[in-house]
Amino acid sequence: MSADEPHRSRTDDQWGDDDLPVIPDIAVATSVGLIERPPLLAEAMGDDGVHEEGTSLWKGAFQRLVRNPSAIIGAVIVAGFVLIAVFAPVLAPYEPAGSQWISQITPSTLPPFSPEHPLGLDPFGSDLLTQLIFGARQSLIIGVVSTVLGLIGGAILGGLAGAFGGWVDVLVMRLVDILLSIPSLLLAVSVAAVMGRQPLAIMVAIAAAQVPIFARLLRGSMLSESRKDYVLASWSLGLRRRTITMGHVLPNSLGPVLVQATLSLATAIIEVAALSYLGLGDPDPAVAEWGRMLVKAQERLQSAPHLTLFPGICIAVTALGFTLLGEALREALDPKSRR
Amino acid sequence: MLRFAVRRILLLVPVLFGLSVLLFLWLRALPGDPARALLGEKATPEAIARINAQYGFDQPILQQYLTYVGQLVRGDFGSSPRTGEPVVETFLLRFPATIELALAALLFAVVIGIPLGYLAAKRAGGMIDTLTVSASLAGVVVPVFVLAYLLKVVFAVGLPGWEWLAVLPSSGRQSVTIDATHVTNFYVLDGLLTGELDAAWDAILHLILPAIALGSIPLAIIVRMTRASVLDVLHEDYVRTARAKGLPSGLVSRRHVLRNALLPVTTTIGLQTGALLAGAVLTESVFAINGIGSYLFEAISNLDFAVLQGFIVFIALVYALVNLVVDLLYGLIDPRLRTR
């Protein structure tokens, strides 16, 4: 695995003046954007300067993506989920967590499905369909916020390790190893338990569990990217380390991170449910959140299994959408499929 | 091989050291004054000073850390303020249940997963392949405790009209009616050791549903890993050569394809330990199994931090040790790795 290979840092003296050609190879120089391509050469090489090559990778990936049926299914699920979450107040027939029909609920029975309540009522006397629709919103917020937090944390750690190498790399990666030695759910549990029951706690907890994964991924992909020929070419042209790292290595290393972010959204949505189940979620039992709804439904599992089934299906389908999309993205960005 | 093993074990030391620092800082980051938390809001300053002196909270932070590490090294993971029991004792008492469950789940995942992944790869793109890949996706996206509950309702409690499906026990590790002798606290093993076969059988019946629920995610991962790995190996030159020189296809599959394909799968299985232990927290509480998972569940419900911290150090240790064993196994299977 490339992530585990020792990092060979490229110090400037390794690429000292002796190795530098006095006049950089003009074809190479133009393709890394160092100088503008003269018209004749542009004609000979075609007009694929660095900028266009950069987009053509993503363009190619996109073209592969739309040809992949599972990517389409994933994208449709994700789009549907996001639309439902955004337009929840318009789509839902009632107010969420209203408990307006609490009088119809008894400890052992729920009223049957009716035209007014196509999926019936939840044990708190709210409309189940409304709760499910607003649950999408909650899942989206938690999923996106926690993934973004985890991504930022992981990108800072992994970026530091990948950009500086040497002892920074060793230090950061040992920290990541330690975090990885705790199963992610337990890491999330410990963070959530320390922060107490507040809405932000669950997001920070899930983010904390994602940080080491992102860090390791970004560092590994930066390392393998920095060994490539175009980076060598940039060094030999005398570009500065910062330009190479920020302008070339980092943007080209983001593919796997993006894939992981998509997959992390799926994990986040599932882990919210697990944390809710462990009693670390939002303290308000009537709140429209799928994991929370599942937990509360268990008391009535035998008499009303649909209370468990519907939120369970919502979680599974949403997670499936993000997983399909993420994996299709991974395949599309894979250099092996680039031909 | 010995050097390889020693190197691997030495690599564990910095990780465990770092973990102890991290957990200690985390412990210090706990909001509030620990003495006040123990004594309550109405504690007198003298009582707080006494507790601080007793637990060493008034010592310099480095000294506190050294004391903490000293305790860890001696196997003292603290005790639960709620029950007063030492964390380690409760762990050891309850650990067999969790190991039994995790092993059963792993057995389920491996026995089904490897052949299924192999078959899917052999007929890539076919019916079995499509079904397997879809099912493994489903296995990953369904939350463990949802699956556990659904299994419990269908096969143990019984849905109205489908009661005939409910043939398995719904909770616990053994029926209360069975008067079994317990030697090791591994109930299946106990039954076999003492010759009480009905007790062992009963314990196995109790394991089936929890093991399927807990094993679903490792199963999905093992299937996908085996499939990908076999696909890779099938395209290797040495497989083509083996076929070309006329080896029977069964021999090629066994000796060349499977043996090489299972290397990455071994690592994957080792990495599942964490998922199994975390999943046990959810599964054990659904099926009322008295393992460390349900112990942690109780600790979380009661916000019992001492148990939580002890648990995490303990799990990290187990996780690290299992992965050490996997690394060593890996070295045994693949001689090339020993030299690195």
Would you write up a description of this structure?
The complex is a heterodimer of chains A (339) and B (340). Chain A starts with 25 loop residues before the first helix and ends in a 6-residue tail after the last helix. In chain A, helix 9 packs antiparallel against helix 11 and helix 11 runs parallel beside helix 12. Chain A is built from 13 helices and no strands. Chain A is elongated, with a radius of gyration of 25 Å. Chain A is mainly α and 339 residues long. Chain A has a single domain, classed as Orthogonal Bundle (MetI-like fold), CATH 1.10.3720.10. Chain B has 340 residues and is mostly helical. Chain B is built from 13 helices and no strands. The longest helix of chain B has 38 residues. Chain B starts with a helix and ends in a 7-residue tail after the last helix. At the A-B interface, helix 7, helix 8, helix 11 and helix 13 of A face helix 1, helix 6, helix 7, helix 11 and helix 12 of B.
List the helices and strands and how they pair.
The complex is a heterodimer of chains A (339) and B (340).
Chain A: H1 26-31, H2 39-45, H3 50-67, H4 69-86, H5 88-91, H6 128-164, H7 166-180, H8 184-195, H9 199-226, H10 229-236, H11 241-277, H12 290-297, H13 306-333
Helix pairs in contact in A: 3-13, 4-6, 4-13, 6-7, 6-9, 6-11, 7-9, 8-9, 9-11, 11-12, 11-13, 12-13
Chain B: H1 2-29, H2 34-39, H3 45-55, H4 61-73, H5 87-122, H6 127-141, H7 144-157, H8 187-194, H9 197-234, H10 237-244, H11 249-286, H12 292-301, H13 305-333
